Amino acid sequence: MLSHKQIPTFFYDAKDFNFAVKLYKEQESLFDNVLQQTWKQAEEVKAFRYILNIKSSKSLKGRYRFLAQLNPDRAQCRRTPETITSMLQSFNSIGFNFTKLTQQEILFDIGNGDTNDIVAINASPLEQGHCLVLTERLKCLPQVMTEHSLYKVIELCLLSNSWSLRAAFNSLCAHASVNHLHWHLYYLKYEMLLEYIDIYNYISDIYLLINYPAKGFCLKLSSFKSIREFVSQTFLVVNYLQLHQVAHNVYITRAKSRPNDDLYNDVRIYIWARKPFIGVKDTTAFIPAVCELFGHLSIRDENVYNNLTEDEVSNVLNDITDEYFLLIKDKLKCFLEK
């Protein structure tokens, strides 16, 4: 076990939150500086499995502005994903888990200094600053979202002064690679459709994402009086899926009121119920995990990258979400309106 003194602690409170940020005019916050500096230091000491090298990026032609990035190293060099067979799969202390991180992989503590809540590198990065938020790490919890983990991740997003910091969660049977509670956090400096796409009333404070191939649910921070209320209502939806063993993906992004605004004055959380994936994922194929549902496609194979079309991506996203969206929509409404 690492000595707590070897891991720096990042202290913050509510006055450090940034509720509005500007496009491409950012002055990095202390949190951004610390995250990026410690991430680069980890890169310098070769803590990663490879040095991030996105060989090519492009927006696919069409209405959804899918972003495709060619990152073959992620397929060739990453750790073999864990075999996931059930949403009830218990934590396995024998295989890889996040209690086995080296000191070089841990960037800083975001709790009380006991290394239970930390930010660590993702050793197989898909973008700049790609790291993991590990809450209650030493409890060895399986990859089942907790309200505490969601709250911590929202706080970290608000500590940033960048419009481009995103957070993401894959449940078990939704392409989670490690069955130990974790969130992804990374910078994606591309304007994305889901930052401002029209969403539609569903029930109080919860919206539907329907003019998009991956249909799902959306909550906005601006609908709530406090971060706590925002988190609680979001967790209510996610936990409904968890309790009913419905595979799901969750993505958090800064948001703006209109497409051409340069002010990001909101935060959106997207939640997708989806067709479950069982087994070991093929790391060379186009894998529809959480980032792909958001429209950020990390492609491992050059032929796939060169030939990918919006229609193909749309068909995949629709195939994995449509049936479960329709299945869940009315049942979830009944549950929430009780």
UniProtKB/TrEMBL annotation:
One of its GO terms (biological process) is glucose metabolic process. GO terms for molecular function: GDP-D-glucose phosphorylase activity; guanyl-nucleotide exchange factor activity; hydrolase activity; nucleotide binding. Transmembrane segments: none annotated. Its main location: cytoplasm. It catalyses: GDP-alpha-D-glucose + phosphate = alpha-D-glucose 1-phosphate + GDP + H(+). Residues 31-186 form the GDPGP1-like N-terminal domain. Keywords: Cytoplasm, Guanine-nucleotide releasing factor, Hydrolase, Nucleotide-binding, Nucleotidyltransferase, Transferase. InterPro entries: GDPGP (IPR026506), GDPGP1_C (IPR058865), GDPGP1_N (IPR058866), HIT-like_sf (IPR036265). Residues 205-321 form the GDPGP1-like C-terminal domain. It is an enzyme of class 2 (transferase). The keyword Hydrolase applies. GO terms for cellular component: cytoplasm. The keyword Hydrolase applies. Its EC number is 2.7.7.78. Pfam families: GDPGP1_C, GDPGP1_N. It is found in: Cytoplasm. PANTHER family: GDP-D-GLUCOSE PHOSPHORYLASE 1. Belongs to the GDPGP1 family. Specific and highly efficient GDP-D-glucose phosphorylase regulating the levels of GDP-D-glucose in cells. This is GDP-D-glucose phosphorylase 1. It comes from Lasius platythorax.
